[in-house]
Structure formats: C-alpha cells, structure tokens
Amino acid sequence: MLGKKLVTAQKRGETRALCLGLGMVACSMMMYFFIGITIVPFYTKSVWTTETMCKVLKANIKDKAFCPNSDDSEDEEIFPYPCLQVWVNLTASGQEVMLYQTEDTLERNPKCSYVPDKLENSKEVKARIETIASNFKKYQTFPCYYDPGGTQTNVILSRLYPSKGLLFAFLWPTLMFTGGCLIIVLVKISQYVSVLSAWQ
Questions:
Q1: Which of 32, 50, 69, 114 is packed most tightly, with the most Cβ within 10 A?
Q2: Cα first-last separation, the chain
Q3: Would you list the domain boundaries of the chain?
Q4: Among residues 53, 52, 70, 35, which one has the least CA distance to residue 161?
Q5: How far apart (Å, rounded) are the C-alpha atoms in residues 92 and 68?
Q6: pLDDT, tens digit (0-9, with 9 covering 90-100), for 19-31
Q7: Where is the chain membrane-spanning (predicted)?
Q8: CA pair distance 85, 107, nearest whole angstrom
C-alpha cells in the first residue's frame, strides 16, 4: 500500500517537473521570437558598426530654432526645444561630420545632435541641453561610431543595441532554455531508472 502511494507521488512529481521543463522551454522560445522581431532588426539595420575617436570642433545651441519630435507639425508646436548641433573631426577619415546621440536621433530629427524626451518643463529641457553642450566642450575627445561602408557620413555617440546588449538580451532565454532541457532530461533519466528497477 505504501509502495503504491510512493509510486503515485513519484509519478505526480515527475509530471509536474516535466510540465515545468516544457513550460520553461516554451517561454524561452517565445522570448527568442520576441527578441528576433524587435531588437535584432534594429541591430542589423544599424550601419554605424566601427568604433573610432571623435574630436569636438564646435557645439552650438540654436535658441530660436525649434526641432520637431516627429513629422507631425502639431507636435513641433507643442514640444519645441533648442537645437544642439555638435560637429566633430572623425579620426578614421579626418572629415568634419555631425554627431548624433543614437541612430534614433537621426531618424527623429536630422538637424539636431540631441533630441530630448517629451517633457512639459521647457526650462528643464533647456538646462539639460546646455549641460550636454558644456560636457562636449569639456571632454573634447571621446569614442564614437561611424559607417565604414560610407553610406552614412555622420557619426553617433552610442548605439541603441550594441553587441554586448544583444548578447545580454539572449542570455536570459538561453539560461531558461538550458534549465528547461536539463529538467526534462533529469525526469527522463529518473523514469528510465524507475522502469529499470521495477523490471529487475
């Protein structure tokens, strides 16, 4: 009687562990799919792949020139902000090019090097842009990214999805997938040992 109860409990535990392992594998596959359709396209689309050194030539703030946050003209009137333009000397080619914060900055507004988030406090936005401009003037030389193929003549300060970030994004689903497969293998080994013991 006790043996039957132990066998039943063991089967229930194996079933739950097997479901857990399969669930972890399924979740990891969903995470892989989500990363594949969101982060990977942005990473592969970026042409600014080579790192070099940039030297600031000038950093100007156009107080009366307002840049739109999008193509919508109403958005331009509601969220105006001073336009910061940073020109740098590209060490790799010696060219004078414009610097952008990220790839997204160039898409949102090619006239400005920095596009702030939508903030209601215009003074806070202006103070932030002035701080960024003073930092560029203070730190003249810094690493930046450029397009080795020459498709884009400008440079960016940082990539939205660098290689390390992409690897970190794939780390968690990989660990979950490995853990789920390990649980399934251990359950199958346990079942095989149980059947072998019962046969003997």
A1: 114
A2: 20
A3: 50-67+77-161, 163-199
A4: 35
A5: 32
A6: 888 999 999 999 9
A7: 20-43, 166-187
A8: 15
